[in-house]
Amino acid sequence: MRRLKSIDFFKKLPSELTEATLTGAWISVAATIVMTVLMFMELWAFASPSSSASLVVDRSSPNELLKVNFNISFPALSCEFAALDVSDTLGTRRLNLTKTVHKTPIDSELLFLGPTVQDVKRRAHNYDEEGRFDGWPDVDVSQPINHFNFEQTLERYPIVVVNFFAPWCHWCQRLEPTWDAATSAVHDKYPESDGRVRLAKVDCVAEAALCQEHFIQAFPSIRVFRHGHDEVNFHNRKVHEAYDGDRTYESLTLFADQLALSAGMPHLRHQDLVHAPFAGGCNMHGFVMAKKVPGTLHFTARSESHTFQHAWTNTSHVIHTFYFGSRPSWHKLALLRRLHPAGLQAGWADKLVGHTSISETTQTSHEHYLQVVLTTVKGLGGGASEEYDAYEYTAHSHSFESDDIPATQFSYDLAPLQILVQETRRPLYHLLTTTSAIVGGVFTVAGILDAMLYQGAQLLRRQRLGQRG
């Protein structure tokens, strides 16, 4: 037992050999307060999770797709021809996306003029073989009408089918002999004494103002006028009646026969009639799923059977939303606010919200270049509910004149690195280690301070006694 006692680290002195001092008491009280405060702070730090941010190579799976969300208003681009194309650097090109794109007609003030409809692909039209009507004689009835006799023609006939064309348009050139032949045949079958239906055409190069007045944006556009106007009420909104059938002699004459039967009965509709938007603007909203490589969203006017006058195509627009990924729930938004390395700014995911691009001149295109960075935050739980991918981007916009048809495009480039923020909690042994360090450190420092003060006091006492002696 005596040998065992010899290795005791904590040897005690008899109480009669120790001395209590007032200075030591104050130091003990101060040391106790310091230890208590430090212990409380250490316990608080242990109970509160911490986060660590690191920059890593993008860990997305090879086949993962990126959701691109948009809501954009084009006040001068008709929903009849507004289209969205998507392309990327891998060579993928998808034209006129319709499955996840919705359109709503709007006016120049961006007010909705009708219900939202899902975009649909427009079918290609059949034409007569070229040269079929080369030997047919010209007839006066096929001559274009103009702004002088346009209203007079509409008032004279119950139904007038008008072909708005441009001489330089390829599709108009293919349609011209067929239209003239059909016009002559319809006039022979329904002469002036009958006058139930009339086919006519308008040269939009010579009558640009007249065509723009009727919201003509592509050629050829075939409109049906009943009793002086082509407006009908469809689901409480005004639309134009337009012909969308094949552009052959048989189809046009059959269509005229069907219209002649319905003269005076505007509620009857032919299967080849479609509703063209009454307004000149369109709101396009929806999303696309794109590969996580640099790509472009291309908004423009498109039709497989029409040609567009570039100078009349205006892609001025207002961006209501444009963001990547999905909107966070309130729980994930709180997680992101707590763990984001630099803190969230207003509009952190949608830097282009409210942005307006105006075409000051004709044939103006607009481009927005977006550099996208992925920040992944992971909470303590580690499950899907505690993880969120936040896509942020910087945007650079500019407008330029182009010889091509005006368009608005969003080009995006994803950074190859991602910011990974993980929330962690300190292990228990850290708490035990720091607690021991606090107690031992404060006790040791307090002991050293007490010894210094005590020895200093003793030295002063000896000096005073020596001076008296």
Automatic annotation (TrEMBL):
<dbReference type="GO" id="GO:0005783">
    <property type="term" value="C:endoplasmic reticulum"/>
</dbReference>
<protein>
    <recommendedName>
        <fullName>Thioredoxin domain-containing protein</fullName>
    </recommendedName>
</protein>
<dbReference type="Pfam" id="PF13850">
    <property type="entry name" value="ERGIC_N"/>
</dbReference>
<keyword id="KW-0472">Membrane</keyword>
<dbReference type="Pfam" id="PF07970">
    <property type="entry name" value="COPIIcoated_ERV"/>
</dbReference>
<feature type="transmembrane region" description="Helical">
    <location>
        <begin position="428"/>
        <end position="454"/>
    </location>
</feature>
<dbReference type="GO" id="GO:0016020">
    <property type="term" value="C:membrane"/>
</dbReference>
<dbReference type="InterPro" id="IPR045888">
    <property type="entry name" value="Erv"/>
</dbReference>
<dbReference type="InterPro" id="IPR012936">
    <property type="entry name" value="Erv_C"/>
</dbReference>
<dbReference type="InterPro" id="IPR039542">
    <property type="entry name" value="Erv_N"/>
</dbReference>
<keyword id="KW-1133">Transmembrane helix</keyword>
<dbReference type="InterPro" id="IPR036249">
    <property type="entry name" value="Thioredoxin-like_sf"/>
</dbReference>
<dbReference type="Pfam" id="PF00085">
    <property type="entry name" value="Thioredoxin"/>
</dbReference>
<feature type="domain" description="Thioredoxin">
    <location>
        <begin position="111"/>
        <end position="261"/>
    </location>
</feature>
<feature type="transmembrane region" description="Helical">
    <location>
        <begin position="21"/>
        <end position="47"/>
    </location>
</feature>
<keyword id="KW-0812">Transmembrane</keyword>
<dbReference type="InterPro" id="IPR013766">
    <property type="entry name" value="Thioredoxin_domain"/>
</dbReference>
<dbReference type="GO" id="GO:0030134">
    <property type="term" value="C:COPII-coated ER to Golgi transport vesicle"/>
</dbReference>
